[in-house]
């Protein structure tokens, strides 16, 4: 994962481009964008809602609720992580999520 200052700057860029988003929604979008950038080879990557909840020390239900809102808005796709876990795998529903967000 990128350093925290770069992550916070990315969240700020998203909120500036899309002020109607809730802060947690911007955090989730930034995490997905960060995962895409870390992959670097164009393959689709995603993040796990359980890991995000632990990383940011917030309730998993809040992360899932924000993920559902972003999925309904067409920004993310969600899929069960697998097994008996309540976690979801989040992926961008768009080829270049950051560019689309900033095009606004």
Overview of the molecule:
The structure is a single chain. The protein is an alpha+beta fold. Helices cover about 55% and strands about 10% of the residues. The chain has helices at about 5-15, 25-40, 50-55, 60-70, 95-104, and strands at about 45-50, 75-80, 90. The protein has a three-stranded antiparallel sheet. Helix 1 crosses helix 2 and helix 3 packs across helix 4 (about 60-70). The N and C termini lie far apart (about 25 Å).
Q: Can you describe this structure in just a few lines?
A:
The chain is α+β, with helices and mostly antiparallel strands and 104 residues long. It has five helices and three strands, in the order H-H-E-H-H-E-E-H. The longest helix is centred in the N-terminal third of the chain and has 17 residues, at 23-39.
List keywords for this structure.
104 residues; alpha+beta; Arc Repressor Mutant, subunit A; three-stranded antiparallel beta sheet; 5 helices; Formate dehydrogenase F4B subunit
Helix content: 55-70%
**Topology order in helix (H) and strand (E) letters:** HHEHHEEH
Radius of gyration: 13 Å
- Mean of the pLDDT scores? 89
> Please, how many domains?
1
> CATH architecture, please?
Orthogonal Bundle
Q: What is the name of the CATH superfamily?
A: Winged helix-like DNA-binding domain superfamily/Winged helix DNA-binding domain
The stretches of 5 or more residues where confidence is low (pLDDT under 50) are none
Number of separate strands:
3
CATH class: Mainly Alpha
End-to-end distance = 26 Å
Strand order of the largest sheet: 1-3-2
Enumerate how many helices there are, as a single number. Answer: 5
CATH topology: Arc Repressor Mutant, subunit A
**Strand-residue fraction?**
5-15%
SSE-based structural type: alpha+beta
